[in-house]
């Protein structure tokens, strides 16, 4: 990986797209130092992230990932409150309920254990946990990758809504170009460790961004065309 | 059955010291294993080395491991001074703790290796320091597995702690070893019931704690902890009320004669108003060191044994000179006081059936020489390799027709059935009296003497009151009286006595 220079403005929602092994997750994890770069720097609010105390940095950056990683021995409420607890503060019960409501879960779910929840509910808790510290930046690594399509769509829209409502800066890694186009203000495309496109969704749909980006855009576009063609064509068994 | 129950009720103090020993060993094992496991989870080299070492320890038989700590601690006296105990609690604790290491360590390392990587990534992601991660995530998630390891270690340790008896630490092994030697099966069964019962109860309680932790039921693991703590507290309290400094500790090796003599000596001291305690079933090799270091106060040892093992001599200056030399040597080198000889020997000797002895006209080794080429001589498996046999052959120019090896029990059967004409025997063996055997005289004193001596530790060596209480035993026990007492304990069926009963019988016979 190398030769990547890019700046992300406060308040933007950026999607980082690429095929498997393109380096998008590695790049994302350099932001909260789960991966440290061998060369180059990542600046967060003007500071090199490797010079800021690690624990403090990670509490300012909400992290949501595909594996979710809820602590199985903590209740849902304790999972959500873990960030503030590490900083020595107890999160008020009303705040936990508020966060649960924010991700569209019942407030009384706070006392449940993670293994009693469905996959979608668990990732909602994961998002609530990431938001509990009032982070300046939310980074998400394939956050909806393991969810069924309906849950995935609903949760994607919810995150976008929260991004607006809470004035967050969000970076989301995904391999699904449709998701990126629908949720983000700006799409970065990676290939073999390099940044190959940096466009707004509308520009990508208009054919900008080069071959690799267009290759990724072609997949959902073609699917959509085939679906609508199917709608127009007469049914194969002649009953329609 | 009633006998077993009765014995069980009398095991209170052994029970208490067994619990204290096993609990201390497990505690020490945990203290060493857990930090080691944390270190191992962060370094594969440490993990390999630690698990390799713990597995290696496990391959050493527990009995050998316990015995090995005696020379190790003895050599450590150069560093820690002469007060470092080499027998009893300390070596037992160290050996058992080493033994407890493996299951705890292995479970802890495995638990750490199997933690969900997603959960660990989340712990890093939310900004835990590595100490917070250990305390809040790794430790609680590993706890049920670690607890299972502690449970396994506890069951092992409680079982292995019975072996502590052999190095002078009272435990539930005392009745087991004593029972095995004197063929008193009630004692063996009682000891086994007590130690197995203890292991089962502890396993149950620790299982309850393990389950409580795994299912996050505070009351469950809390109750388990309270029960374990109460049991331990009771054991400590019971043990605290045990021996004081005035108690005289009497040792015995692992055979009937030693158990009987210990009881005889104990009864004599109690009659004089002393309180006594018994360390039964000590390994033969450790008894002398135990008395020399005042870990025990009184033992009965044999001149031939001390001559070879302690003075490291191979010559035979004759019975009197050997005894005098030993008394002098002990006084100068160990501070042990040899109070005197009890009056009998437990030596190697040649024995014949009385009818055969009369028929051939043999009453001494000198008589044997002429007819020996036509005879078959039986010995225990090692006898014909021992210096005693070589000494006899050389002294009398003895040539026997045939030699055969038998296990000690079959040796007597062979003599009875005529498969052997003469056998090597122990002079105080009860079977000599029971089978009415003739022990051949040894006029040239080729066989070294094994006079039984009463030894007093340096701690009580100068106490003339104790010496006076024991003086009546000196020269009082004939070999015939000792044989009879040994036979009463060794025999099966009707007339079988416990060592204590045999000692009372013996005391009556010698007029105490």
TrEMBL record, chain B:
Annotated transmembrane regions: 15-37, 49-74, 86-105, 141-165, 185-209, 221-238
Pfam family, one: BPD_transp_1
Keyword Transmembrane helix: yes
Major subcellular site: membrane
Membrane topology qualifier: Multi-pass membrane protein
GO biological process, one term: glycine betaine transport
Keywords: Membrane, Transmembrane, Transmembrane helix, Transport
Gene Ontology molecular function: transmembrane transporter activity
Cellular component, GO annotation: ATP-binding cassette (ABC) transporter complex
Annotated localization: Cell membrane
CDD domains associated with the record: TM_PBP2
Family matches, as InterPro entries: ABC_Gly_betaine_transp_sub-bd, ABC_transp_perm/SBD, MetI-like, MetI-like_sf
Domain ABC transmembrane type-1: 15-206
Family, per entry: Belongs to the binding-protein-dependent transport system permease family. In the C-terminal section; belongs to the OsmX family.
PANTHER family hit by this protein: GLYCINE BETAINE/L-PROLINE TRANSPORT SYSTEM PERMEASE PROTEIN PROW (PTHR30177), OSMOPROTECTANT IMPORT PERMEASE PROTEIN OSMW (PTHR30177:SF4)
Annotated protein name in UniProt: ABC transporter permease
């Amino acid at each position: 990986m190398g030769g990547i220079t890019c700046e992300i403005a406060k308040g933007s929602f950026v999607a980082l797209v690429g095929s498997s092994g393109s380096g998008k997750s590695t790049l994302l994890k350099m932001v909260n130092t789960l991966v440290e770069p061998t060369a180059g720097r990542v600046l967060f609010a003007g500071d090199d992230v490797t010079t800021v105390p690690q624990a403090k940095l990670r509490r300012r950056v909400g992290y949501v990932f595909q594996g979710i990683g809820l602590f199985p021995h903590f209740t849902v409420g304790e999972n959500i409150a873990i960030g503030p607890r590490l900083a020595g503060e107890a999160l008020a019960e009303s705040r936990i309920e508020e966060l649960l409501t924010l991700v569209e879960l019942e407030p009384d779910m706070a006392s449940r254990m993670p293994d009693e929840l469905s996959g979608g509910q668990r990732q909602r808790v994961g998002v609530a946990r990431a938001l509990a510290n009032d982070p300046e930046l939310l980074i998400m690594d394939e956050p909806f990758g393991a969810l069924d399509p309906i849950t995935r769509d609903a949760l994607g829209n919810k995150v976008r809504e929260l991004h607006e409502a809470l004035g967050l800066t969000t970076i989301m890694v995904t391999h699904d170009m449709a998701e990126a186009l629908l949720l983000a203000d700006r799409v970065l495309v990676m290939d073999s460790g390099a940044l190959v496109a940096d466009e707004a969704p509308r520009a990508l749909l208009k054919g900008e961004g080069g071959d690799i980006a267009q290759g990724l855009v072609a997949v959902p576009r073609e699917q959509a065309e085939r679906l609508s063609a199917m709608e127009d064509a007469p049914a194969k068994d002649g009953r329609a | 059955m009633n006998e077993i129950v009765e014995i069980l009720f009398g095991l209170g103090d052994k029970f208490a010291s067994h619990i204290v020993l096993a609990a201390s060993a497990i505690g020490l094992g945990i203290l060493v294993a857990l930090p080691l496991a944390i270190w191992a989870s962060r370094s594969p080299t440490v993990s390999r080395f630690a698990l390799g070492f713990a597995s290696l320890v496990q391959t050493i038989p527990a009995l050998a491991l316990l015995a090995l700590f005696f020379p190790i601690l003895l050599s450590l006296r150069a560093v820690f001074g002469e007060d470092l105990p080499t027998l009893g609690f300390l070596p037992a604790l160290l050996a058992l703790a080493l033994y407890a290491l493996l299951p705890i360590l292995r479970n802890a390392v495995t638990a750490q290796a199997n933690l969900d990587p997603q959960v660990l990534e989340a712990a890093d992601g939310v900004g835990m320091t590595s100490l917070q991660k250990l305390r809040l995530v790794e430790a609680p998630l590993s706890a049920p597995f670690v607890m299972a390891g502690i449970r396994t270690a506890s069951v092992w340790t409680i079982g292995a702690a019975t072996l502590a008896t052999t190095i002078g630490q009272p435990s539930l092994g005392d009745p087991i070893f004593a029972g095995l030697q004197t063929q008193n099966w009630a004692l063996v069964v009682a000891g086994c019931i007590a130690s197995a019962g203890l292991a089962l109860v502890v396993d149950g309680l620790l299982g309850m704690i393990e389950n409580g932790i795994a299912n996050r039921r505070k009351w469950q693991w809390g109750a388990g902890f309270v029960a374990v703590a109460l049991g331990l507290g009771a054991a400590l309290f019971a043990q605290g009320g045990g021996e004081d400094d005035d108690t005289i500790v009497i040792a015995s090796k692992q055979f009937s004669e030693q158990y009987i003599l210990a009881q005889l000596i104990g009864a004599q001291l109690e009659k004089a108003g002393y309180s006594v305690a018994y360390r039964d079933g000590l390994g033969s090799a450790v008894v002398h060191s135990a008395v020399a270091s005042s870990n025990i106060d009184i033992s009965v040892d044999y001149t031939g044994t001390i001559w070879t093992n302690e003075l490291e001599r191979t010559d035979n200056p004759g019975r009197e000179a050997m005894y005098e030399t030993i008394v002098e040597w002990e006084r100068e080198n160990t501070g042990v006081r040899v109070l005197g000889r009890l009056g009998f020997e437990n030596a190697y000797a040649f024995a014949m059936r009385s009818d055969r002895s009369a028929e051939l006209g043999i009453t001494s080794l000198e008589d044997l020489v002429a007819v020996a080429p036509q005879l078959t001589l039986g010995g225990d498996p090692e006898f014909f390799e021992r210096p005693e046999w070589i000494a006899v052959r050389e002294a009398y120019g003895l040539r026997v027709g045939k030699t055969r090896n038998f296990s000690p029990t079959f040796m007597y059967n062979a003599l009875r059935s005529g498969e052997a004409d003469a056998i090597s025997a122990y002079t105080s063996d009860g079977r000599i009296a029971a089978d009415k055997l003739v022990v051949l005289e040894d006029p040239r004193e080729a066989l070294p003497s094994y006079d039984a001596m009463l030894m007093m530790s340096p701690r009580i060596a100068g106490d003339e009151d104790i010496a006076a209480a024991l003086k009546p035993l000196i020269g009082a026990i004939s070999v015939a009286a000792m044989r009879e007492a040994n036979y009463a304990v060794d025999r099966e069926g009707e007339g079988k006595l416990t060592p204590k009963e045999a000692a009372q019988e013996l005391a009556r016979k010698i007029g105490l």
